[in-house]
Design a protein that fits this description.
5 strands; single chain
Length: 208
């Protein structure tokens, strides 16, 4: 059927009670107009208010996918993670065993003194400082002042590092004194008790 544009000129003279006898062209234009109005009204009345909910659902879906992928990667590599955790627990236990207990602390001072004198150093000062509590151990600073030569200092530091118990050295200060050198430094050792050891191992398992 041919669409006659001229028929649209009659739209202002049409009777809404005689819709059945309207020209095809007018019926088509009116139907399109009503459809557009319906779509626009439906969008603003029904769809637009639901868009924030749709966006929130899409964001939640993306978040759940990311969580699933992360958990899937962990599940796939579970055996490797368990082996790594076992190694970490073993290493951590070995480190804790290298920390002196309360009963071993006085003997450790003797070891440090023996190392220093064997290296050719003379002790001027060897004093404990205030303990510093940490989560799984207690830090025990020792203030030292010794005299000797550069090579003696180097040998001392090397033998300190070789002690079976953990001892670290910090804050070196070397000055000239008469015909010798004076070295001031702070050494730190670390003490743990059996209860602290058990607590630390439990915490490590919990993190795994």
């Amino acid at each position: 059927m041919k669409f006659d544009v001229n028929k649209l000129k009659e739209i202002n003279d049409l009777d809404f009670e005689q819709v059945a006898v309207w020209p095809f062209e007018v019926k088509t234009v009116v139907a399109i107009f009503v459809a557009v109005i319906g779509l626009v009204g439906g969008y603003y009345g029904l769809v637009k208010s639901k868009l924030p909910l749709l966006e929130a659902a899409q964001n939640r879906e993306a978040e759940l996918k990311q969580n699933y992928q992360a958990k899937y990667r962990i599940a796939v590599n579970l055996s490797a993670y368990e082996e790594q955790l076992a190694r970490l627990q073993s290493d951590f236990s070995s480190m804790l065993k290298s920390l002196p207990t309360s009963n071993e602390t006085p003997g450790l001072l003797d070891d440090i003194t023996l190392v220093g004198t064997s290296a050719g150093l003379t002790f001027r000062l060897l004093n404990w400082q205030k303990e510093v509590p940490k989560e799984f151990y207690t830090e025990l600073p020792i203030q030292m002042e010794v005299t000797g030569g550069y090579h003696n200092f180097g040998q001392f530091a090397s033998e300190i590092a070789g002690l079976p118990r953990i001892v670290t050295v910090h804050d070196f200060e070397i000055s000239q004194e008469a015909n010798t050198l004076k070295l001031k430094l702070q050494a730190k050792t670390y003490r743990t008790a059996k209860g602290d050891n058990d607590t630390a191992q439990t915490a490590t398992k919990g993190k795994g």
